[in-house]
Records
---
Amino acid sequence: MQKKTLAVALAALFALPAVAQAEVSIYGFMAASVDSAKATGNGDEAKNYKRTTRVNSDNSRIGFKGSEDLGNGLKAVWQIENSLAKYDNAGGDTWAGRNSFVGLSDATFGTLLLGRYDSAYKRLTDTGQDLMVNTTAGNQGATQIFSRGEARYTNSISYTTQSWAGLVAGVSFAADEDGSASKDRWSVAAQYTLEGLKLGLGYDQQKDSYTYAAPKPQEVAARNSFGTTENLEKSKFYKLSASYKIADTLLIAGYEWAQGDTKVGSDLKQDDWTIGVQQNFGKGSVRLSYGKLGKLDGVDNADDYKASQWILGGTYNLSKMTQVYAYATKINNNASQNVNFQNNQITSQKVTIKGESVSVLTRGNDPQAIGAGLRVNF
């Protein structure tokens, strides 16, 4: 009798996790690549990044999400997403450092979320321009060639509509919780889908964006999308993107215009754009894109802040979950620019900004890499 009771108790105990996680989905991917990378060209050999073989984790992640049906088309939703991007070098990542939120979703009125979440500008203007996303050869982000106004908002409120005949709209607000300054940030965007066509349009604004007064603006790498230490009162970004899929061919294009309103001196203006094509062949694909960052109007030697990037990549699906990929990319930075890789960035010197030591890519260095990797989705 005791043995039977013990067996029942143990069975119930081991069944508990399955019951507790019945409404929880686990998702993500593990990826790794090997590449050969370097960054040279600034004229100072001591600040070059010599060709190096690297093993990369390519933005790997794991997430947990779930929902509860509250009736009448309303659901409570939640998500916790974590980066695994440093598993290749025994590093650590912040728990819930990626999109992590709680909110309500209604079948008619849309979704309202609180927490850490990609801005409406980032989500809804993404119509497929990043053909080698999550690899060294990606091209989107605040310190890359294209979509420099995108961000993942913390302390944010986000609302997204349901689809109205292919049209989805959204708005995001990031609250400034530091009483010493007003750095509230918000964005509004929309995406329209009609068969193989996708269009994205967005606007992003941040108040009191970086107020560093360092004498050498080229010493600040990723602190400002404009790549300068001018005293900015407000940063504004406008973006238009499009993609069109016909049969096995995907065509992409995007244009972004940025303005920085300064407290002293001339306002800053800079644009960027990208074009590309992806051709699928059964389980494989070949991908090619080119992007350019324009001159920085409002500073001396505006052309010195230009940059460009070409990307050639390919993928092959071994199964529905497993993919191999390869890429080659090169970024050309003018003398005062230091656009870096999307992932697995290169740094070639350390600078001190307001007493903080920051690792940066030396201005004028041209990062380039060639590599191959494996991704398993789950």
---
Amino acid sequence: MKVWTDKCAYLSRRGREWLERAPSREVQRILVIRQCAFGDYMATRPFLVELRRLFPGAHVTLATVSTYRYAVPEDLIDELFVQETQGGLGAQWRSLRSLTPFDMLFDLADTARSRLLTFMTSASIKLGFPYRSLSNRLLYDVGLRRTNYHYEAEVLLDFLKVMGHKPRYPLDFAMPCHLGSDAERIIAYFPFASSSDKSLSFDAWRQLIEAAASTHVDYQHVLLEGHKAEEGGEFLAEVVARQGNVSVQPRMDLERLAEWMTRVSVLVCGDTGVRNLALATHTPTLGIFFRTLPYRYWPRYENFHEAVFLRDGATPGKADILHGLEELLLRLYPERELPRPSDEDGL
């Protein structure tokens, strides 16, 4: 196959020779290293779908570690390898040496553990996203420059573009798909994040949800509880008591959550795994960013995702978020537009 690279990529002589002489049908065993949390696993799904399209006969093994098991895309792979990281040095060494040789290895993580596994695993060709150029000559035959200014799921597909693959758009996550204009009049909110500095305070969320419920009275406003014990909706109890169109959705498992997400009109949340689940189901999202780079989690190939962030890096206020929500609902569901309470008051 032709190698589709230029000065944007590192390519070793061994890598070029192997790619040019190896027909895709001869690729029998592939290792994908991805040691990450919930949201990043969602972003990995299109890569695995397209990898299967490019190498339909290959046996695909996904390597992770025990701390990152939630939302592993086991439905898209043939085998899961969990690298030992908790035992003694002997157990960890045996774990590293337990994998048999592969035809291709993709390191999608670029962590200390993934680099060690890459080094210890035998493969005809190794491809990676090194943040440090030194890793190219030490570890990889193909090294791509990673950008965080494009949606993560698209960036991962660059590996397959090296081999001339044409990914399908919109990206295929192999997940339930949003109902579009038939979605229920539900605005969902997920006010939690992996760390508290990535999300608004509970008080800010309380004010936002009550204001949105008062403005968009024709919608149900539902706070979605998370799977952690501290991710409950108790802090919204007073708003639920005051507003008849505000409620709390109890915790759901991942499969039920994905199906439920396809029926809501829009999800409002910060940088969270739940937002990545919404992206994977093509559910409209309004993302709130102030700590993390928004572009990495903001697909631009679909017009129903919006990001609220301020150029000076300040935390978006209630007015900023409500304005973004208003514009997004109008763009997505223009047929639903009704006079707002403020409009009626002026008559």
